[in-house]
Design a protein that fits this description.
6-stranded antiparallel sheet, 7-stranded antiparallel sheet, single chain, alpha+beta, 31% strand
Length: 255
């Protein structure tokens, strides 16, 4: 499956968000509490973050378990950022290994992560691949289901669709072709957008200050709010809105 988290707010160290919480993303790599599919997330990890004055994010990705990378804890301790997206990976069977398959994916100032799977990859998902042009398929960053979903979403974003609508349209587009779990997470450093389709998602809003969106809470403190399945979420430090996924799909020009 995978676990992921996005944050917007005052600059903090990634360690404060990922490592120090008692059930944070770092621990979720070997002991997730709410993961419905798979038991560990040891097939790689990634961190993407935005620096002040830089429109395009930086990334640090590895194909090893997050706990096996001593450099990560040092990086997470000293880096500071007001916007990040991080993920730990549980690879879908038959997908490729390697850093290129680890989220977050990035393009045009966006960071993206997929918590889920396209069932029966790759044989049962040919209809999804047919949605892309040959050049788009050849340009996939990795031979895996998440990279395929990202290519579909990126096409919608480049067409000018707003994040929530683009995510919802991508989920429905894929779900019409194959059985899938599609919790998607997207940020441009200013807004977080996400979908729930087959697994858990939570948000924690400190109004006017910060917001976190995560597969599961990093602690047992107050403020964590579950997002219903088959929903689309849009979040900033000033507000979180959640709507049924179908409501974001009316008159979808790419359906």
């Amino acid at each position: 499956m995978c676990r992921h988290l996005a944050y917007l707010g005052p600059p903090v160290s990634p360690a404060e968000l990922l490592v120090e919480p008692p059930y944070g993303l770092y621990r979720q790599s070997w002991a997730p509490r709410m993961q419905r599919h798979g038991t560990v997330n040891a097939d790689g990890f990634g961190l993407g973050w935005y620096a002040e004055g830089q429109p395009h994010p930086a990334r640090y990705r590895r194909a090893v378990p997050i706990w096996a990378d001593e450099n990560f804890t040092d990086l997470a301790r000293v880096l500071r950022t007001g916007a990040l997206l991080a993920a730990v990976r549980s690879a879908t069977a038959s997908t490729t290994a390697g850093e290129a398959a680890a989220a977050p994916y990035a393009a045009d100032g966006w960071l993206f992560s997929h918590n889920g799977a396209l069932t029966g990859w790759p044989k049962a998902t040919g209809a999804v691949a047919e949605l892309l042009e040959p050049a788009e398929l050849l340009g996939l960053e990795a031979r895996c289901d998440s990279a395929l979903v990202w290519a579909l979403l990126r096409r919608r974003l480049r067409s000018g669709q707003e994040p929530a609508r683009a995510l919802a349209g991508t989920v429905r587009e894929v779900a019409r072709c194959t059985e899938a779990r599609l919790n998607l997470l997207l940020t441009d450093g200013k807004v977080i957008a996400a979908t729930t389709w087959g697994d858990t998602l939570f948000h924690r809003l400190e109004l006017g200050r910060s917001v976190r969106v995560a597969s599961e809470p990093g602690d047992d403190g107050p403020g964590w709010t579950p997002v219903p399945d088959r929903s689309v979420l849009l979040a900033t430090p000033d507000a979180v809105t959640v709507h049924p996924l179908d409501s974001a799909l009316r008159e979808d020009p790419l359906r």
